[in-house]
């Protein structure tokens, strides 16, 4: 199909494409063509192209459109992606099967579709899953629930059947870890597979990650190696209340991402904290007073150890349930 195109020397192609994209002039429905050392970049409005570009008309192929699950189903299904696994949360088995088949038939790079079969349960924070469908052409030697998730430049291998992991918290994890300075001592009290510990180590911190779940600790070690920070991450299996005395007065930064019961571990956090310490305390509270209970609990635990408490940020992470919020208190403890 003949379309208006900007013709530029090949070496100027990317610079020109970016300039056209900044002006919202790139025709995304047609492909860029290379011929005789020149690039032909399809544009949506030739009259809006700057005069210093040459605009020509030529035949360019149409982009093949990607088939989505919505194209196949006739409606837009709800699902999450974690690596090459799609996650449903459905109470209608027949609908779930239809959605799973459509996801695998679509052009999404998905190897397996699983459905939540229980709530998160127990001290190890795991849930049951139903495997709805797997790609028969995918040659893999690991369970359908195991995948590699990529987040802000880091990779995490994990098995959802053995560990807790939420991709919805990626932005929050990035917010916290971007504050870490080179040379810090950091403790992740409930480390899981390492989505806080690994980026903190990558920023130059020496990190101790603790978790009760032995599978999570093994994945934490693997993920530290995978992201080239194994020399700065110590992974410990156990209850952080039993570990705290070994790292007393050590931490410059502590992450407490166990929002249903973090208050039970504040005494351990105070033991870990150094002379000054940044504390990231996660909580779930009613929307009428989402921060008050957590702040009161922190002050009550910190006072006997002689800490002043300065609340730096009161941050809403997300809505958790009707009238309930998942929040984070960023606090500075100072003796």
From TrEMBL:
What is an annotated GO biological process for this record, any one? tRNA methylation
Q: Which CDD domains match?
A: AdoMet_MTases (cd02440)
Instruction: Tell me the ranges covered by the SAM-dependent methyltransferase TRM5/TYW2-type domain, including all copies.
Output: 79-335
- Return the SUPFAM superfamilies for the record: S-adenosyl-L-methionine-dependent methyltransferases (SSF53335)
| Keyword NADP attached | no
Molecular functions per Gene Ontology:
methyltransferase activity
What is this protein's name? Class I SAM-dependent methyltransferase
Organism of origin is Haloplanus ruber
